[in-house]
Design a protein that fits this description.
single chain, alpha/beta, TIM Barrel, 2 domains, 8-stranded parallel β-barrel, 9 helices, 26 strands, binds alpha-L-arabinofuranose
Length: about 500
């Protein structure tokens, strides 16, 4: 059993809704097939965007969606993706499988998708192989309200009014696929490119600089020192690989308890990365004006057997649900510095929310975690005091419990909880200080098999259910987390 104290009057600041953001790249079957099937497809669609996926994603109230990459962004030339489809230039997607990219999904289509989802767009610009002028013109094309060469071209292409665009990334992974730059060189490039990412009309851009990979603290130091004054956000990328080795990352299904344990242990490493990068940011930005934007995170396994290695298609099990739950609890906890996070990726790629096969679609365990956790968006984080019991496998021990709590605008307290142990249930007794509550309810995502996943034949094998046995009496909340589970509890004030 573990004792927890939840201080309901200890407001720890708002959890930025953008922590629940997503990422869509021109990679494998994420855009084409996953989101976009085209207007003439037999798959039911709205202006080319498939309806089943759209409906599923609408339910998550996705706050922000990143596009067009990823590595793809630094080879993407946006002008190839506007105008009549038949006239759009074709290119080879050299990063991802060497397949042809016909540019049928471009700026207009992406921004329409965002409108249909009710989500804010986050566009990544091309620093690696693009020009300053090209980047400047893209922002002008999207946001300028009036007569200008780019605004007029937008109108000719069918969009009279400008779009609102807040989030703009100045390059992606410029330490790697985005140009193999040194931090010192990129910091100067960032300053130059970012100068011309202008606020047209009344549109205000939040500029995001390419940040470090994993524990590259030197990158953060240099960027904050040389360019911190010119940015609103600095990105961080960290993926969870079960083995920690890129050449053989581990399988997405059929794993053993060691792989389970190691995956969760590597997920918990995210906390050290947030803390250490934040310490550097604090030095240059003590008022926390620059957000830490974790715009790529999630599991990365060996691809599914028989699929294109460049398409990064993988299954998604209860283990992914735990990875999502743990990471989201961490992002909530560091809500002062973490202002956005984008799971990689939204459909059919890496730790996807949704998988498709032809006209069929399934929701992954990760989808259900995002559904359960959406109650934290824009809520006040509440302080939790507890000491987690250890979860031991062999000689190694990690915490068994991951928790997060917040109070929504309508004063409902939500607690999200993960039990990392694949064998032991965990009873939690939570004292709710300063809460006059009347009722409690919960939902739990759990399966007797920790490797369980949904298939196109059996899409409802892993689904959240009502969490029976959650009780509330005399300001004491009690619940039992089954092994390998993620739960959410609502306490009505
Ligand atoms: O998400 C897949 C790839 O991972 C992205 O394109 C890149 O930014 C990262 O290396």
């Amino acid at each position: 059993m573990v004792d927890v104290i939840l201080k309901a009057n200890s407001e720890q600041g708002l959890i930025n809704r953008n922590i629940y953001g997503h990422f869509s790249e021109h990679l494998g079957r994420c855009i084409y097939e996953g989101l976009w099937v085209g207007k003439d497809s037999p798959i039911p669609n709205t202006e080319g965007i498939r309806n089943d996926v759209l409906t599923a994603l609408q339910k998550l109230n996705i706050p922000v969606l990143r596009w067009p990459g990823g590595c793809f962004a630094d080879e993407y030339h946006w002008k190839d993706g506007v105008g009549p489809l038949s006239e759009r230039a074709r290119m080879i997607n050299t990063n991802w499988g060497g397949v042809e990219e016909n540019n049928h999904f471009g700026t207009h289509e992406f921004l329409r998708l965002c409108e249909l989802l009710g989500t804010e767009p986050y566009i990544s610009g091309n620093v690696g192989s693009g020009t300053v002028h090209e980047m400047q013109q893209w922002v002008e094309y999207i946001t300028f309200d009036g007569e200008s060469p780019m605004a007029n071209w937008r109108k000719e292409n069918g969009r009279e009014q400008p779009w609102k665009l807040t989030y703009f990334g100045v390059g992606n992974e410029n330490w790697g696929c985005g140009g193999n730059m040194r931090a010192e060189y990129y910091a100067d490039e960032y300053r130059r490119y970012a100068t011309y990412v202008r606020n047209y009309s009344d549109n205000q851009i939040y500029k995001i600089a390419c940040g470090p990979n994993e524990d590259n603290y030197h990158w953060t130091e240099v960027l904050m020192r040389e360019a911190g004054q010119h940015m609103n956000g600095l990105s961080l990328h960290y993926y969870t690989l079960p083995t920690g080795v890129w050449q053989d990352k581990g399988e997405s299904t059929g794993f053993d308890d060691q792989a389970w344990f190691q995956t969760l242990k590597r997920t918990l490493h995210m906390e050290e990365l947030i803390v250490k990068h934040s310490e550097i940011m604090d030095k240059y930005d003590p008022d926390c004006k620059v957000g830490l934007i974790i715009d790529e995170w999630g599991t990365w396994y060996n691809v599914e057997p028989g699929t294109n290695p460049g398409f990064l298609y993988q299954q998604n099990t209860m283990r992914d649900a735990l990875v999502a739950g743990i990471n989201l609890n961490l992002f909530n906890r560091y809500n002062k510095r973490v202002q956005m996070a984008n799971l990689a990726q939204i459909v059919n790629v890496l730790q996807a929310l949704v998988l498709t096969e032809g006209e069929r679609m399934l929701l992954t365990p990760t989808y259900h975690v995002f559904d359960m956790y959406q109650v934290h968006m824009d809520a006040q984080r509440l302080e939790l005091n507890y000491e987690s019991p250890g979860y031991t496998l062999g000689e190694d021990t990690i915490p068994q419990l991951s928790l997060s709590a917040s109070r929504s605008k309508d004063r409902v307290i939500h607690v999200t909880a993960c039990n990392l142990s694949h064998t032991d249930e965990l009873e939690v007794v939570c004292q709710l200080e300063a809460v006059e509550s009347s009722s409690v309810s919960g939902r739990i995502l759990h399966h007797a098999d920790f490797g369980a996943f949904n298939t196109f034949e059996d899409p409802s094998r892993v689904e959240p259910v009502e969490w029976k046995g959650v009780t509330l009496a005399n300001q004491e909340l009690r619940f039992v987390l089954p092994p390998a589970s993620v739960g959410v509890i609502a306490v009505q004030g």
